[in-house]
Prior knowledge:
This protein has three helices and eleven strands; from the N terminus they run H-E-H-E-E-E-E-E-H-E-E-E-E-E. It is mainly beta.
Amino acid sequence: xxxxxxxxxxxxxxxxxxxxxxxxxxxxxxxxxxxxxxxxxxxxxxxxxxxxxxxxxxxxxxxxxxxxxxxxxxxxxxxxxxxxxxxxxxxxxxxxxxxxxxxxxxxxxxxxxxxxxxxxxxxxxxxxxxxxxxxxxxxxxxxxxxxxxxxxxxxxxxxxxxxxxxxxxxxxxxxxxxxxxxxxxxxxxxxx
Length: 192
């Protein structure tokens, strides 16, 4: 079941869902979601000697990406057409063992061609950290994105029972507690 605005406020007030900085409900709360803001750290692919990414090859994907940090005060990041960039939310959040969250892009950005996440929209019970977004520009014009703008929305769903092994306790977790965007670690699944 998806939590309503009333229930979102309740789980935050009870401390079951922790969000820092604390949300401004007047600005961020919708009928069944909570908007999050764009952070100031981005990760982009840089030119590489590799002609393609072979996930079985021992390549440190972090080495072929570059981190860009913008200023905290309304500093822009220009997302060019056909660009792909990893970005984080300004907010950190922690989920309990009986709730999961889903991240959705905002319709207003989608209408400009901005995709806020490619596939990684689910945050498992026990998640803690900043949400990483896979931003893309499908449009034909560059779009200027500002640190602190509302960029995505979280919805919260209850599980039928608390997870037996939460993300925080899972040996398979790859991105727990992230403060900055991290490159893909999928090649670790191949033993690379």
